[in-house]
Amino acid sequence: MSEPRPLLRILCLAGFRQSERGFREKTGSLRKALRGRAELLYLSGPHPIPEPAPAPGPYSREEEPRGWWFSEPEAASFSALEEPAECRGLDEALGVVGQAMAQHGPLDGLLGFSQGAALAALVCALAQSGDPRFPLPRFVILISGFRPRGPRLTLPFRQAPLMLPSLHVLGETDRVIPTRESLELAACFSGAVTLSHPGGHFIPAASPQRQVYLKFLDQFTK
C-alpha cells in the first residue's frame, strides 16, 4: 500500500475589506476541491477598516473587515487601479506576512485574492531578490490579482521575471480588477498559467476550475 502523500501547506492572503473568518468562508468550495491535496492557512490584513453606519451587522473583533495597506494618506480606502501617493501601512503588512511564514513554515505556496494577490506577488518578488524576511515559496496562486502600484512597489518587479510556478485566475466579468490587470501581473512570472472563468470578483471552484487547480498542484506532490 502506497504512503499517503503529504498535504501541501498554503498560506492564503485575504482581499481588502475581508476578515480572516470571512475569507475562510468564501473559500469553502475551494477547500473542498483541494481536500486531500492541500491545507489552507488563512491570514487577513493588519489594518481594521471602519464600517460606515449603519453597518449591515455588528462585527466582533475577529470578524472586523481588514486591509493590507491604504492608497490614501489618511482615509481607510484603497484603489487598485490608480497610482497612489503612498502605500500607507504596507510595512506592517509585510511584517505580518513574514511572521506568518516563519510561524507556519515551511510553506509550499502562497494564495492571494485581490489586494492579497498583489501582496503575495510582491512577497515573491522580494523573496527572489533575497529579502531575508521571506523564503521563496514553491508556487503561488493569484486570484483577481494585479500588479501593485505605488512608491517602492515597482522596483521589485523590474528584476528578471519571477522564476516560480504561478497560476493566475481571472474573471471575465470582474468589474473590480479587470482582466488586463491580472494578465499584466501574470506577465511578471516566467511560464505563468492562466485560468479564465466567466464570473466576476470571486474565487471560482466549480468543476472546470477544480481540474485546473488540481493539475497545477499535482506537480508539487509527486
List the helices and strands and how they pair.
Blueprint lengths: L7 E6 L6 H7 L1 H6 L4 E6 L3 E2 L17 E2 L22 H15 L4 E5 L1 H14 L10 E5 L22 E6 L7 H8 L6 E5 L9 H12 L4
Parallel strand pairs: 1-2, 1-5, 5-6, 6-7, 7-8
Antiparallel strand pairs: 3-4
Structural commentary:
There is one protein chain. This protein has a single domain (8-218), classed as Rossmann fold (3-Layer(aba) Sandwich). It has helices spanning 20-26, 28-33, 90-104, 115-128, 179-186, 207-218, and strands at 8-13, 38-43, 47-48, 66-67, 109-113, 139-143, 166-171, 193-197. Strand 7 (166-171), helix 5 and strand 8 form a beta-alpha-beta unit. 28% of the residues lie in helices and 17% in strands. By secondary structure, the chain is α/β, with parallel strands linked by helices. It is globular. The strands form 2 sheets. Strands 2-1-5-6-7-8 form a 6-stranded parallel β-sheet, sandwiched between helices. It has a two-stranded antiparallel sheet with strand order 3-4.
